[in-house]
Amino acid sequence: MPTEQDLNEAYWANRYRQNQTQWDVGAATEPLKAYIDQLTRKDQRILLAGGGNGYEAEYLHQQGFTQVFLLDFAAEPLANFQRRVPDFPREHLLRQDFFSLTPHRFDLVLEQTFFCALPRHRRAQYARQVFDLLVPGGKLAGVLFSEEFEKEGPPFGGTAPEYQSYFEPYFRFSHFAPCYNSIKPRQGRELFIVLERRERMQFLA
Ligand SMILES: C[S@@+](CC[C@H](N)C(=O)[O-])C[C@H]1O[C@@H](n2cnc3c(N)ncnc32)[C@H](O)[C@@H]1O
Q1: The ligand 1 atom nearest the CA atom of 74
Q2: Is residue 133 a contact partner of residue 97, using CB atoms and an 8 Å limit?
Q3: SS3 (DSSP) at 34
Q4: Contact by Cβ (8 Å): 127, 204
Q5: What is the largest CA-CA distance in the chain?
Q6: Class of residue 172 by CB neighbours under 10 A (exposed 0-12, middle 13-18, buried 19+)
């Protein structure tokens, strides 16, 4: 099982350098675009965590969203993004470890192939960190794989009940269902989630 060291910044930076980026679809994906298209407040603070080359950040920027932040600990994708979107505010590019991000407060965190890239033992910590980064009532939205994979990850798969156990203490489930508009290779293999941050953590029986 890969450890944190195995999936550190050097590991991911190397994957970008060697063009081993099979997750990268080269554009904002349909489920994320459709979700973004129904957002109305253009000044909400939005975080793309483990956002890689940042196609959704680019899309948001093009649509006039002004408070978009792209975070990744690998330098390569952020440099690629800067070359592609030179007018994106430099201070909104956060090159750091997601788990060390403080004290930002966001209205929305968008998820796509970041959760599945983390070592499995960090999943509960991810849920907690998103809770800490969101304002009360803020949302975590995006896609999660809905199946286990035969090959050792990343990506690491999972199941709806497993995910529920991580997120329930911190979020209300506004939407948590099979994704109907996944990109072709991910069809039938993703959940679309919209989770609303609870006011405070809830201890569940
Ligand atoms: C599978 S890629 C997904 C990139 C992007 N979300 C996409 O859909 O194209 C996972 C990304 O998460 C980044 N990453 C992994 N662990 C991280 C961490 N702890 N903090 C910040 N970035 C991280 C990697 O550098 C990589 O860019």
Answers
A1: 25
A2: no
A3: helix
A4: no
A5: 50
A6: middle
Mean pLDDT of all residues in the chain?
A: 96
Give the mean pLDDT of 54-82: 98
Rounded CA gap, 159 and 184, in Å?
20
- Dist. CA 75 → ligand 1 center (Å): 11
Class of domain 9-20+28-197: alpha beta
Do 95 and 78 form a contact (C-beta atoms < 8 A)?
yes
Residues 161, 142: Cα–Cα separation, whole Å: 17
Cβ–ligand 1 distance for 16 under 6 Å, the answer no
- Cα(84) to ligand 1 centroid in Å equals 18
Q: Mind listing the pLDDT tens digit for each residue in 142-174?
A: 999 999 999 989 999 999 999 999 999 999 999
- The whole-angstrom distance between residue 125's C-alpha and the CA centroid of its chain comes to 14
Boundaries of every domain in the chain: 9-20+28-197
